[in-house]
Write a structure and sequence with these properties.
Order of helices and strands: EEHHHEH
Shape: extended
Radius of gyration: 21 Å
Distance between the termini: 43 Å
Length: about 120
């Protein structure tokens, strides 16, 4: 069940729909992972907010090289440039209460590289 909320967003409040949404998100990052872990309990789901929203269109600016501004913008006394961002996996941090011998799962090629770097 959906409740209208936050302007054009929809609050997902049905537990099954919320879990399906979270599983889809998790599996996008680590395929098959939601099948390997337990489903959240009622309290965990209640403490987690999931919003649904439609994207009529989306865009991203991806380019190589430095900034490319309109000539008139260079007469303005404001900073212009590029702030490069990079998402990098770091060493996995296991739960301190894992059973002895529990191995890091094969999540995806990125995580495999993290395992090798240790």
């Amino acid at each position: 069940m959906y409740k209208k909320s936050y302007d054009r967003n929809i609050l997902v409040d049905d537990a099954k729909e919320k879990w399906n949404s979270l599983a889809c998100f998790v599996n996008h990052i680590a395929p098959g992972r939601s099948d390997e872990v337990r489903q959240p309990n009622a309290n965990e789901l209640k403490a987690t907010m999931v919003l649904a929203f439609e994207l009529d269109e989306a865009s991203a600016k991806i380019r190589n090289g430095g900034p490319s501004e309109e000539e008139a913008d260079y007469a303005l006394n404001v900073w212009a440039g590029v702030v490069p961002l990079k998402l990098v996996p770091r060493r996995a941090q296991p739960d301190t209460r894992l059973m002895a011998g529990t191995r890091l799962p094969e999540l995806n090629p990125i995580h495999e590289a993290v395992r090798e770097k240790g």
